[in-house]
What does this fold into?
Amino acid sequence: MIPLLEEMAALKQIIVEQRQEIARLKGLKGKPDIKPSTPSGMDKATQKKPPEADRPAKRRRGAKRPSVPVEKRVVVAETIPPGSRLEGYETFTVQDLKIEAIVVCYRRERWLTPDGRTVVAPLPPGINGHFGPELERFILAQYYQGQTTVPRLVELLEMLGLDISKRQVVRILTDAQGAFVTEARDVLRAGLASAEWIAVDDTGARHKGKNGVCTTIGNDTFTFFATTGSKSRANFLGLLRAGHADFVLNEAAFAYMRERKLSASVIAKLAGNPQQRFADDEAWHAHLDALGILASKRPLDPVTIATEGALWGAIMAHGFIKDTVILSDDAGQFDVGSHALCWVHAERLVHKLETFTATARKAKEDIRALIWTLYADLKDYRAAPNPDRKNELKQRFDQIFQRRTGFATLDRLLARLFANKKELLRVLDRPKLPLHTNGTENDIRCQVTRRKISGTTRSDDGRECRDAFLSILKTCRKLGISFWQCLGTRLGAAVSCPVPPLPQIVAARCAPA
It folds into this structure.
């Protein structure tokens, strides 16, 4: 009976799609896209509200105090009757903004020494070209934080009185910004070396007119973006090297290969060769060719698994993610090391199931209610871990995901989720680990917005700068640091509070207490 109902539902869907296509060809309006009235909101729905008596009293919003120095001006009354007496002043604070174009001509002394050399006075600190640090800071902040476009930015600058072209703005955005790219990479290294957990996600990206993928790596302290052309596990492992290009064969690499079922004969060839470290991708694949290890179209491709193992060995050799949990949404490329899964994505699979009978709908809602209750208890466990509570939660997990409801599609899904028990219950061993990847999905929205605005990057420098500046922007936001002050500190502009190197702050925040 169940397969027949599923077949009928599939046929109904085909009929609906054909009717929509006919309406489109006739120029008629299509069916409105109305979202379900009860979307899955497991995390918010399981937040416990404190009792009315324990809730803090609502305070009225007081006057905001400006964070910049206040300039005091005295306003004199125009007509005062004779015999009046001054009784002080009535204050009225006004916040304003002063934006104006400034052109400075530096007259640099030029001296001719007795030995024939010419000595020219140096430019002030922060002046590295014909555009000053304040202008560079304004352009970078408007483009990356303000999410504006280059043509609109050029129009704004010209409106303010600056003589600047689109090409010059693009050069400021992409050229000579290696220090920011290096700092973003060092932030990733600091995070991978000391973080107890990292969350990962990816989204589509375009570079040089081709489809690619942008991967985000981070936690509640830092964020790092990297745009590449591949979505493979080897690509993800390459990003976890944090800028290093080497491949290393060590015990960690061989353990990875054995876990991925690489042939013992291939492992013996790699282990028996004296060369165990390779500078780059070209040297590594040349080594594989020399050993006669060739690519195969089989699922267990020896070249792919050996490459992943050597990448994992390099990650371990550089001291990254040795005891770090990787939290993901169950995408296969992220399943490496100590892996954990997002509960919101797991519950969403149940929520999205199509039901056709009252019995199936009831079974689905009953399972969802049980999952939500378990999720709420896992949140309580994170706040106060307890060994007895840990065993109880494991037993409840088994009871929920091993039950049979009679709804075949739901039962298959429950069996699939039960197979991920270790990853879903990783929080029982690591209570600081989040139960979801909501933070990472929020991080990657700025890349999605940038993609909608700009479409694609055209040069490798542009791609690296976009990823680096958005990484620094998100990291500053998580650390409670002004991105504007950070840009000013790095560019040599006037700042009220210099920002220290971000990798140092990230390493201190990520270090275990």
Q: What stands out?
A: Residues 34-38 have pLDDT under 50 and may be disordered. The first strand starts at residue 110 and ends at 112. The chain has 21 helices and nine strands.
